[in-house]
Design brief:
mainly beta; nine-stranded mixed sheet
C-alpha cells in the first residue's frame, strides 16, 4: 500500500509538472545557451517568441568588431516597458537595455562586437508582464570581443574622447524624425591583456524641458566609436544627448 501511494504521488507530480514544462516555448534556434541566458535576462517571467520583434543582422559579418544590427519592436509601440538585447555566445552577452519613452518609436540600430557566430536576441517586456522575444542567427568571423580597439594605438581618441557627431533625417512617417549619432569612445571590453574595461554605460536623449525621451544602458560589446540610429515622434523639439562612461566621464551635446 505504501509503495502504491508513492507511485501515485510520483505520477501525480509528473502530471502536474508536464503542463508547466510544456508551457515554456522551445528555442527556435536550438541554442545551447538559451536556457542560461533566458534565466539571466528574463528569469522565470512568462515569454513567447514573437515574429513581430524584428532583429535584422547582416548575412555574414566580415568585421566582427563592427556588426550592424537593428531591433524593431514598433508592433508593440506604446506598450513597452523595456527592451533587452544580447548575444548568446559572446563572452559578455549583454549588449544593451533600451527604454523608449512615449516620444520615441521602439526601433534602434547600432553596431556591436561578436566573438563568433551567435544568436542575437531582443526581448521586449510589455506592460502586461509578458516578454516578447525576437531573434536572428548571425554568421560572423571570430574574435570581435578580444580585439584591441583602434583607439589604443592612436592618441587621437584621448584628445577627442566623447566628441559627438549627429544628424537628423526625415523618417517619412508622420511628423517623426530619424536621428543618428556617433561618439568617439574606445568601448574596451576588458578582455584584452593590460587594457582595462572602459566603455559608455549610459545614454539619454532629453527634450527642451530636460525630460528623458530615450534611455539606454550599454555594455562593452557595443562597438568602438558607437553609432546609434533611432526615431523620435516630434521633430520640432530641441533634443540633446547626455552620456556617461564607466570612468565617470560625462558628455552632453545638442542633437
Amino acid at each position: 500500500m505504501k509503495l502504491k501511494q508513492r507511485l501515485t504521488a510520483g505520477t501525480l507530480s509528473l502530471l502536474l509538472a508536464g503542463p508547466l514544462m510544456a508551457a515554456q516555448p522551445a528555442d527556435p534556434l536550438d541554442s545551447v545557451m538559451w536556457e542560461y541566458t533566458r534565466d539571466i535576462f528574463i528569469g522565470n517571467d512568462d515569454y513567447r517568441f514573437d515574429p513581430d520583434i524584428q532583429v535584422d543582422v547582416p548575412a555574414f559579418a566580415e568585421d566582427p568588431t563592427q556588426v550592424p544590427i537593428t531591433i524593431d519592436a514598433r508592433a508593440h509601440a506604446g506598450n513597452i516597458e523595456k527592451m533587452v538585447v544580447w548575444a548568446d555566445l559572446n563572452p559578455i552577452q549583454h549588449v544593451l537595455n533600451y527604454y523608449p519613452g512615449s516620444g520615441a518609436n521602439p526601433k534602434v540600430s547600432l553596431r556591436i562586437k561578436v566573438q563568433q557566430s551567435t544568436a542575437i536576441r531582443a526581448a521586449v517586456l510589455t506592460r502586461d508582464g509578458l516578454w516578447h522575444v525576437g531573434y536572428a542567427q548571425l554568421d560572423a568571423a571570430g574574435g570581435g570581443c578580444t580585439t584591441p580597439s583602434m583607439g589604443n594605438a592612436d592618441p587621437y581618441w584621448q584628445s577627442h574622447l566623447g566628441e559627438i557627431q549627429s544628424r537628423r533625417f526625415q523618417s517619412g512617417q508622420d511628423d517623426s524624425a530619424r536621428y543618428k549619432f556617433r561618439v568617439i569612445h574606445p568601448m574596451d571590453t576588458g578582455l584584452v591583456d593590460a587594457i582595462p574595461e572602459f566603455y559608455l554605460e549610459q545614454v539619454e536623449v532629453r527634450d527642451a524641458e530636460n525630460q528623458t525621451i530615450v534611455r539606454m544602458e550599454l555594455s562593452p560589446p557595443v562597438s568602438e566609436n558607437p553609432v546609434f540610429t533611432f526615431d523620435l515622434k516630434d521633430q520640432a523639439s530641441d533634443y540633446h544627448l547626455w552620456l556617461r562612461d564607466n570612468g565617470g566621464n560625462e558628455f552632453e551635446q545638442a542633437l
